[in-house]
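sorry for the late reply, my laptop died twice this morning and i had to redo everyting from scratch. anyway the thing you sent over, i finally got around to it. pasting the sequence first so we're on the same page, its 467 residues, then the predicted structure underneath. double check i copied it right bc i was rushing
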Amino acid sequence: MRLAVSRVLAVLASLGAVVAAPHAQVRADDFQISFAAGSRDAAGRFAGGTEMRLLAAHAGRLYAGNGYWEDRPGPEGPQGAQLLVLDRPGMPWRVDHAFEERLPNGRWRDLAVGALAEADFATDGSGAPLPRPVSLLLASTWDLTGAARVFTRDDATGGWSAVTLAQDRPAPDFLPQIRSFATHRDRTTGADLVFAGEMPRGIFAGHYDPTAPGRVRWSDTPELDASAVSTVFAGLAGRLRVSSFAEANGRLYAAVGQQIYERIDGRAPQWRLVYTNPRPGHSETGLRGLTAIPTTGSESLLAAVEGNAPRLMRISPSDGRESTELDLDDFLARAWAMRPAYVIAAYNDMARVRSPGRGDALLIGLMAFIPRNMPIAAGHAVVDVGYGQAESGAWYLVRWSDGHYDLHQVTAAFGHPLVAMRSACASPFPGEGEAIYFAGYDANKAPAHNTAWIARAVASTALSPSR
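ok and here's the structure:
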């Protein structure tokens, strides 16, 4: 094991990482490599990426969406975003779909997968039951033309079809994009609905329609108009993201910038503001990972605040009252013996997984920037990310039902810094037990190549008490 640690530290040093001597051996054998960017699948298609951004289970398979932000291409040449699939445990990942449209200048149109989720329908747009339930896999990309497109997979043919919800002009510091999907049954109409959180327009709604492109009939205009959402916070040049959705107590909520909105169901639906973060600090996104958690007699909302005032907050959806469950600055300062300057938590969502004997737990990915003048604590390394330095590992929190948090790290030996755990997903494969898959890398604003990764671990390893 000491030799393995030495090799990892040597690789970190070669990549410009600042390395401190470890205070404990890295248990790299706890996590296995599931996918490493830079290979070809059985059909000869290149599978790479600087980032593996999202994981989603669908129809008994595991799907992953990558991106090529900040890529410095190798011999394979520039690539467009890809959707990968794992058909069963132990098999190699393969390319399910490559986004291969090009712009007039020859550049690939789709840079990264921005959203990936499964949508389930048991009723149509009027609330009438479908002959049989339907499950669709949806994706969206960072489209360099500024189009907000939803791609739907046809499981019978393996093809993907696209529908454009909006078209806006990209700006040098902002690319229009869909960042999140959600499903919800309208409590008044009984219709099963799907939602796409897009900026700069807002939240679009759709319902199942077998005659529509992609089998979803999307609204022409957004239900929640983004122009009505306050942009009074520092980040993204005043622009916002619909980062996440959550369903609590039968109602749908959306995190938009530093605010949370509730959908008022009905034939003329509306969205009402229920919460505004009173301590936003400096943040690029605001609230992330909106999730429902059980509390006495009902459900509350849990959200992560990204930025230099990072924390995990429990929010009452009925009156907007908040309480801090975890101050991430203090928590990480104690755990790492160095205080971060800026933290991203819950990149896309908080993945719910089952722990044998302990019930449900939430997995929350992390990335933290470390001040340049701070000594690097033993057992840690930092990497230059273009506009600062970040802790180089793939760290994540485990939240238990009693509100207790444990801190863990993905330690699979990929041979390069893992720089953030972005997405996690419980195994969809029967017979694989309580396995969990993890994916990540954050390119930030530094050159990268073939740094996307997916790791696997059993729950007893991934969720074990802090050690």
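The first strand starts at residue 18 and ends at 19.
thats about all i looked at so far, will dig more tmrw
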